[in-house]
Design brief:
Blueprint lengths: L2 E5 L2 E2 L4 E6 L2 E6 L6 E9 L3 E11 L25 H18 L7 E2 L13 E9 L4 E5 L19 H4 L2 H10 L8 E6 L4 E6 L6 H14 L2 E5 L7 E2 L9 E4 L4 E4 L10 H15 L6 E5 L7 H5 L4 E6 L2 H13 L6 E5 L7 H6 L5 E4 L7 H9 L8 E6 L2 H14 L3 E8 L9 E7 L1
Parallel strand pairs: 4-6, 7-21, 11-12, 16-17, 16-19, 17-18, 19-20
Antiparallel strand pairs: 1-5, 2-3, 3-4, 5-6, 8-9, 8-10, 10-11, 12-13, 14-15, 20-22, 21-22
Helix pairs in contact: 1-10, 9-10
Length: about 425
């Protein structure tokens, strides 16, 4: 394939530099905006080409040396070669572009981005495990970039240091197990009092395996959970450890217990900032009735209950709503909270109207967004609608789609929006938006 000199114009969220050659888009892996590069076209398609970076002719002022020695091979990070402030700016631009191009909306103001530490922030992770004899035995880590192979990594800078330090001991541990080739993954969940390692094992563990796990737990200060089959089989190795995993929300005096397979935010510090910002933007008053849709474990519901008269949390998983209600009881908030289990992808205006009037609403959906909820809100009469919505999103595209529905069909105004850098060095864009009736 041909060698070309290209001027990089922008960066997509997979950290590919974007250039044009004879009117056609070319994606250049590893190139940054403003750079002039020598790149080799490696794949041609009808609408775009992909190229491999051969040499940087004019580097960007925002290019930095990636701190991790595994960057470029490991697929866990995509943007370590770009200054962290520039990463946030690119994500903010991606949010604005999505709102404009997909939703045809423009925020009244852009919020100051929320961010925290750029390394050591990842408190949730799924580590792949593979026996690779050519590389000395067992590998434990993330997959290689655009590959199903497990990267041969000795450390990970986005994991907390104590978790990164477990990577090599975990290799040795798995290598001593009775069926190391039947252990596909180890999930990590770091709580405020313990670090849980969830071992997925496809063959029953023998007595020696259990002993190895217990010794490892003592030596490294961790708690083991096991998963022999589907998610319903997850259990702690020692029953006494069942309630040890939790995260704290000190601003609200809350401690949130969870299981290692439950959804929680990866970045606990930014999650605390996000909750505080969301409640400030929602401007909850003491007499307000509030709805928290896609409430999960009550990450927003319980903080809201410390401010509002009453809060209804709705979630599709009964296991999560049961844990949320239990946490509300533990904190004496059960008189102010109510939880319901429902598929929020299939709701309509009649259902929403039947719940009664809400003064304010928080929406925090998965990547699929909240289209049904947005359409239900848009179909309500002006006097029936919550006067303010705060929408927390993990996908700019679905947020933009739903924003378009709320604004163009529901008469809401998009008052503000901004990004939350929950996942530094990755292309993942978390964001928050405010809608006023």
């Amino acid at each position: 394939m041909s060698l070309e000199v290209l001027k990089i114009e922008s960066l997509d969220l997979e950290a590919h530099g974007v250039a044009h050659l004879e009117g056609k888009v070319v994606f250049v892996d590893g190139a940054l905006p403003g750079e002039k590069v020598l790149a080799r076209i490696v794949k041609r398609k009808a609408s775009f080409d992909t190229a491999r970076l051969e040499r940087i002719l004019e580097p960007s002022s925002q290019r930095v040396k990636a701190p991790c020695p595994h960057f470029g091979v490991c697929g866990g990070c995509a943007m370590q070669h770009l200054d962290p402030a520039a990463q946030v700016a690119i994500k903010q631009r991606a949010l604005e572009d999505s709102l404009g191009h997909i939703g045809k909306v423009r925020p009244g103001m852009m919020l100051t981005p929320m961010h925290g530490a750029t390394f050591g922030y990842r408190y949730r992770a799924r580590l792949s495990v593979r026996v690779v004899k050519k590389k000395g035995g067992v590998l434990v880590g993330f997959r290689e970039k655009r590959s199903s192979y497990v990267a041969d990594i000795q450390q990970c800078l986005v994991l907390p240091r104590h978790v990164s330090d477990l990577l090599m001991p975990l290799r040795e541990l798995v290598g001593r197990m009775s069926h190391p080739d039947r252990i596909p993954q180890i999930e990590v969940a770091v709580g405020d009092q313990t670090t849980v390692l969830l071992l997925r094992h496809m063959e029953p563990l023998v007595r020696a395996d259990i002993e190895h796990l217990r010794v490892f737990a003592i030596e490294h200060g961790v708690t083991w959970w096991l998963q022999p089959k589907g998610p319903e089989t997850v259990h702690p190795l020692d029953p006494a450890d069942a309630d040890k995993l939790a995260y704290s929300l000190p601003e609200f005096g809350l401690r949130m217990p969870y299981r290692p397979t439950d959804f929680t935010q990866v970045n606990h510090a930014v999650n605390q900032t996000l909750i505080s910002r969301a409640l400030t933007l929602l401007d909850v008053q003491s007499e307000d009735r509030v709805a928290d849709l896609f409430c999960g474990l009550g990450n927003f519901t319980l903080p809201l209950a410390t401010r509002a008269k009453s809060v209804l949390g709705v979630e599709g998983s009964s296991a999560l709503t049961e844990r949320a209600l239990d946490a509300a009881r533990r904190h004496g908030l059960d008189s102010r909270t109510e939880f319901a289990t429902l598929n929020l992808f299939e709701v309509d205006a009649e259902w929403l109207r039947g719940l009664g009037h809400f003064d304010r609403m928080l929406i925090d959906p998965p990547r699929e967004g909240a289209e049904a909820v947005a359409r239900a809100l848009a179909a309500l009469a002006p006097g029936e609608r919550p006067r303010r919505l705060v929408y927390v999103s993990c996908s700019p595209a679905t947020l933009a789609r739903d924003a378009g529905i709320l604004v163009h069909e529901g008469g809401y105004r998009l008052s503000a929006a901004g990004v939350v850098n929950m996942f530094p060095h990755t292309g993942h864009v978390e964001s928050i938006a405010v809608f006023d009736a």
